[in-house]
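# nightly structure sweep
# worker-07 picked up a monomer target from the shared queue
# config: single-sequence mode, recycle default, output format = structure tokens
# input follows
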Amino acid sequence: MRSITIGHYLPGESFLHLLDPRIKIICLLMLIAALFLAKTFFGFFILGLFILGAFILSRLPFPYVIRGLKPIVYIVLFTIILHFFFTKGGQVLLRLGPVTVEEAGVYLGTFMTLRLLLLVIATLLITLTTSPISLTDGIEQLLRPFRKIGVPGHEIAMMMTIALRFIPTLMDESDKIRKAQMARGADFDSGNVFRRAQSLIPLLVPLFVSAFRRADELAVAMEARCYRGGENRSRMRELKTTLLDYCALAVVAALMVGIVITGI
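# output follows
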């Protein structure tokens, strides 16, 4: 549980830390678009080099970022197995009785795995270098133009940030509940898949109860502080866009346009 780093924020004074959160969100969206528009491994290689450069500029601890990739190991394995054994086409590389692994399956499985890994790393770089308050303000201001058509930008930004903020809290809570249940004789590791799933019930029930209790306490605390949404809300720190932000935005935009034009 402690390997999940999504939602954590590591304070710092690096290049990524100093960027405007609005610019970081826009850059992330363009980078995600580039990852889905890339059609070759060379395109992923270029995007991987760019993300590696961003990681170096962020000055984040390498083991901490790698630890954040552990929760998606099972998703990666499922993606690889799904494509290896169910995508047909090309030369047969491996035959296990009636099941075959063909060239198209290996290609597509590797392709989708690289896309998933780069996507998660890029998202981690944003969450690790942006405080929840700054992220909320950035999302809210980006959604502000949509208020004219009835989109509650502040409420959406607040919900997204609260959900992101409480991921580490819920993970710590689940770890405590799991240890308490194991101290009382609960077994979460033995047996088949169905038995392990059944053994999670004593873990999930108190976790849901704790989550609802925390949500109720948060609502009471916000009401006690006279929280009334985004109307006439003042900020201690106003977001300001600098030349450095525009340069970063131009670089990411050029990268995305280059991926689209070259078709790599």
